Amino acid sequence: MNILVTGGAGFIGSAVVRHIIQHTSHHVLNVDKLTYAGNLESLASVADHERYQFSQTDICDRVALDQLFKTFQPDLVMHLAAESHVDRSITGSKDFIETNIIGTYQLLEAARFYWNALEESKKATFRFHHISTDEVYGDLEGTDDLFTETTPYAPSSPYSASKASSDHLVRAWHRTYGLPVVLTNCSNNYGPYHFPEKLIPLIILNALAGKALPVYGNGEQIRDWLYVEDHARALYTVVTEAKVGETYNIGGHNEQKNIDVVKSICTLLEELAPNKPSGIEHYQDLITYVKDRPGHDLRYAIDASKIEKDLAWVPLESFETGLRKTVQWYLSNTKWIENVQSGEYKNWLVEQYQADE
Ligand code: NAD
Ligand code: DAU
């Protein structure tokens, strides 16, 4: 099959592209604008593969999207491109509205016009998979409550409100136009190639540099962590096996308080990186409570029983094994980190094309 992946240069998208190239025989077209979060160095292991191709394209550009659908002739679309960082959505929401809402609209329209013109057999098997977040449900108050696929939407941040809007558009395009869609809403991912603005990579890299470890508010907020390769496997299962119109929640059964996540990282670093920056006795001494995030959701937790039952997907990593792998990855991949921190990764495309000439 031909699989068009949007946002394939991002954290989760790159895991999806690596998964498809390494574990299937399908062809991938990665459509990515390469914002600050897009990093082609995360795709170095598949970049030269004959079944992989890349297009630097903004999903808001309908003319370019139409051309890509025409030439690539996708059997499946996996839509991950988005502005994804909650804190950035609070300081500036414009890009979130444009990419997450308008961009999803443009992609839906391009997909609909392409799908309408397909022959009947291809029309029946085509899928548009919208990749979304558990943040559309807002936060949970009770300690036993879980998000299910029927939990009402109550987004808190500009980011989650923009993702909720995109989910509604996707369902409307299914109901009104018959576009064969599937949706997934996932909890917090972590793992290799995670941009160090998000909690886990930020804490690992700050600790190694002897910098403060910022914990928002009292650190009692709870997130449900899923190893990114488990998510990539779940997404591939859903896009290839789920019935049209279905929604699946995806989560890791790994609820953790933020402060406990930060302490677990410090403990792992004591073992794996015992040579600390000068003047630091214990990594935990760097923990610093800072001003809380406005509108900060208290607790997320996913009921993933539907995907487990219908599609036999279960996460393979526990938080302990996944976090250890993640810390080890950041300790071993210093070049990727240096290039992200210096901004050098943005030159990768230029260098790649120069090298090809
Ligand atoms: P990311 O920020 O790491 O990557 C986003 C990618 O989208 C980048 O490569 C970026 O260049 C690209 N992009 C942004 N705007 C674009 C545009 N206008 N046109 C084309 N490409 C554009 O995000 P991520 O963490 O990999 O998340 C991927 C998807 O999964 C998002 O839709 C996000 O909402 C969702 N999600 C993320 C998590 C998580 O924990 N990270 C959890 C659940 C769902
Ligand atoms: O739940 C899924 C969502 O998870 C995705 O939809 C988002 O794209 C993804 O970014 C993530 O959102 P969060 O806001 O939960 O992730 P973040 O890593 O930014 O923060 C995790 C928790 O840690 C959150 O409660 C805020 C807190 N935090 C974060 C940072 C960056 C801190 O305490 N200190 C920090 O410096």
Which range best describes the helical content: under 10%, 10-25%, 25-40%, 40-55%, 55-70% or over 70%? 40-55%
Structural class: alpha/beta
Largest sheet: 7 strands, parallel
Ligands, ions, cofactors: nicotinamide-adenine-dinucleotide, 2'deoxy-thymidine-5'-diphospho-alpha-D-glucose
Give unreliable regions as ranges. Answer: none
CATH fold node name of the domain at 2-194 and 225-256 and 299-319: Rossmann fold
- Strand residues, percent: 15-25%
CATH class of the domain at 2-194 and 225-256 and 299-319: Alpha Beta
The rounded Rg comes to 20 Å
* Spatial order of the strands forming the largest sheet: 3-2-1-4-5-6-11
Mean pLDDT score: 95
CATH architectural grouping of the domain at 2-194 and 225-256 and 299-319: 3-Layer(aba) Sandwich
Fourth-tier CATH superfamily name of the domain at 2-194 and 225-256 and 299-319: NAD(P)-binding Rossmann-like Domain
Along the chain, the helix and strand elements come as EHEEHEHHHEHEEHEEEHEEHEHHHH
Count of beta strands:
13
